Amino acid sequence: MNLSKKLLIILAASAFSSVAFAGDCDITVGGNDAMQFDTKEIVLKKSCAEVTITLKHTGKLPKSAMGHNIVISEEANMNAIVEAGIKAGLAKEYLPSDKSKVLAYTKIIGGGESTSVKVKTASLAGKKKLMFYCTFPGHFALMKGTVVLK
Ligand code: CO
């Protein structure tokens, strides 16, 4: 097979994969009563202008005991956001009042609930290493992962 033919196949394959699943622009992340997300990586496709990330709390505990949210920021800002969020408390969704470093966030939910946030992929382009995590006090140790723009 010559090079141009190979390229054609690769192009065709990538064009197909970008339109194959409309659901690519909708991502669901689960959180449970064991203080865990069901994934360590959220992949956002650049082919989606906007991705809807839905957080589904599959547990039974109330948000006061086992609240979860999804917050996205650069890794470098993660600790400061978590600390400010803990000080802010549940009434403020465990989020800092200054959200300039928060790139996306959901509210805090409890067992059986779900919530979602829309993320414009262009707003994340050029950012340094991105992380998603839960800002409920103590959860961030286990409840975090990387956000990858592909
Ligand atoms: Co949590």
Report the order of strands and helices.
HEEEHEHEEEE
Which radius of gyration do the C-alpha atoms yield?
A: 17 Å
Low-confidence stretches are: 7-20
Number of strands: 8
Shape: globular
| Major sheet strand order | 2-8-7-4-5
**Count the helices. How many?**
3
What average pLDDT do the residues reach? 90
- Strand content is 25-35%
The biggest sheet amounts to: 5 strands, mixed
The ligands bound in this entry are: cobalt (II) ion
CA distance, first residue to last residue: 28 Å
Structural class: alpha/beta
Helix percentage range? 10-25%
Describe the structure.
The protein has 3 helices and 8 strands. The chain is an alpha/beta fold and 150 residues long. The strands form 2 sheets. It has a 5-stranded mixed beta sheet, with no helix packed on it. The chain is globular and about 40 Å long. Bound molecules: cobalt (II) ion.
Task: Provide tags for this entry.
five-stranded mixed beta sheet; 150 residues
Secondary-structure blueprint:
Elements: H1 3-20, E1 26-31, E2 41-44, E3 50-57, H2 63-66, E4 71-74, H3 78-88, E5 104-105, E6 114-120, E7 130-133, E8 144-149
The structure holds cobalt (II) ion (CO).
Cobalt (II) ion is lined by residues 31, 67-68, 134, 136, 139, 143.
Produce a short descriptive summary.
The protein has 150 residues and is of the alpha/beta class. Helix content is 22%, strand content 27%. The chain has a 5-stranded mixed sheet with strand order 2-8-7-4-5, with no helix packed on it. A 3-stranded mixed sheet has the order 1-3-6, with no helix packed on it.
